[in-house]
Specification:
With 366 residues, the chain is mostly helical. The protein is built from 16 helices and no strands. Helix 4 runs antiparallel to helix 5.
């Protein structure tokens, strides 16, 4: 399982409501962030909401994926799942986006090295899963991943090709999610009695409230400082005029804040089954499909220029509706071949020796 969860689970695994709740709320915040993007240039209220969400929602999404990542040597089944869960959906939907742009009057260019819109996450998750078993061999994987992230921001030749800039920039959150499982903090949280839970939740609410207030009071300064560009983790510092040696310190500060917000976010997530728990089992569908719903709104100019005050809450409400609808069983059945391609015909028999040689049954030792 990962943040991009599907309805297919191992028959012996019991899903924990906390994580499905966290997945659905996190993916809904992703939809909200994309839905209000066109509003942030004209409305400070939209920009405040945008910066607030982006301070933690992608880090949360990445950390949840890291929490469920396996750090041991990958077996044949895990390697197959890298293809069926990540590579094949990426190729399918990148092809669809390429065809869509061509149909709408663009040039037909198949370029799988440059991810369309949200598809960068599939490339990043693929590389994180491959790299994790090697990272955890090191003594301080989280510290090293932070250093990699900060250092990557100084290199202008690390860009969006194969989502490398975001892969390296967001790597610490993937490792942080993995570390949360090693520290058994979430197990402790699930066993904590209700009285203490609400004390911690009050502190988490205070942190989020203070963050929103500070962003709102300093929104013009944050525009000038281009803080949004730091929250995206997809560019070198020099690309947006931060050539000073201390630019990496800003990324570190943003990252440390995000670590605290990840923990606070998980504290606020219901530990029990809720009405949206089952929806958290289909976040991959929401992630891949919501962009097709929002694309007309973003490209037709409907949201360009100043908008009435009700548009921001309206787009937030629309995002929740989109997240719910795309989680419905009927939607999953219709698009499952695209989102969860099994492609069993592509896989050969599993090798039975360390060298990859398939031993004929009649030569197997008794």
């Amino acid at each position: 399982m990962s943040a991009l969860s599907t309805t297919t689970t191992h028959p012996q695994k019991r899903r924990v409501p906390l994580w499905d709740n966290a997945r659905w709320i996190a993916i809904t915040l992703v939809v909200v962030g994309h839905a209000i993007l066109k509003l942030i240039g004209e409305a400070d209220s939209a920009y405040t909401m945008y910066l607030f969400i982006y301070a933690f929602h992608v880090p949360v999404f990445v950390a949840v994926s890291g929490y469920f990542a396996k750090s041991g040597p990958p077996g044949a089944l895990q390697m197959q799942r890298l293809l069926t869960d990540l590579v094949f959906p990426y190729i399918i939907f990148e092809t669809i986006w390429t065809a869509l742009r061509w149909i709408l009057g663009g040039t037909l260019v198949l370029d799988y090295s440059t991810a369309s819109w949200t598809l960068w996450f599939f490339l990043a998750l693929l590389l994180w899963r491959i790299a994790l078993p090697y990272l955890v061999l090191l003594r301080y994987p989280l510290t090293i991943s932070i250093m990699i992230s900060i250092g990557a921001g100084y290199l202008s030749n690390i860009d969006g090709t194969f989502a490398l800039s975001r892969t390296l920039g967001l790597l610490p959150f993937f490792v942080f999610g993995w570390k949360l499982r090693q520290w058994l903090l979430t197990d402790t949280w699930l066993e904590l009695r209700a009285g203490l839970v609400w004390r911690w939740r009050a502190g988490a609410l205070g942190l989020f409230g203070l963050l929103y207030l500070l962003i709102g009071l300093n929104i013009e300064t944050l525009r000038i400082l281009q803080v949004r560009r730091f929250l995206l983790y997809d560019e070198s510092y020099a690309t947006f005029d931060y050539s000073e040696f201390w630019a990496g310190g800003i990324r570190l500060a943003v990252m440390l804040l995000a670590f605290a917000l990840i923990v606070a976010f998980l504290m606020l997530i219901p530990r029990r089954t809720t009405w949206f728990t089952d929806l958290g089992a289909a976040t991959m569908y929401i992630y891949l499909l919501h962009t097709f719903v929002l694309y007309p709104l973003r490209e037709t100019g409907v949201l360009d220029g100043p908008q009435p005050g009700w548009v921001l809450p309206g787009m937030i409400a629309l995002s929740v509706v989109i997240s719910i609808v795309l989680s419905l069983p009927v939607v999953r059945r219709l698009v499952r071949p695209l989102v969860e391609p099994k492609a069993r015909w592509l896989f050969g028999p599993t090798a039975t020796t360390p060298t990859g040689t398939i031993v004929p049954p009649h030569r197997n030792p008794k």
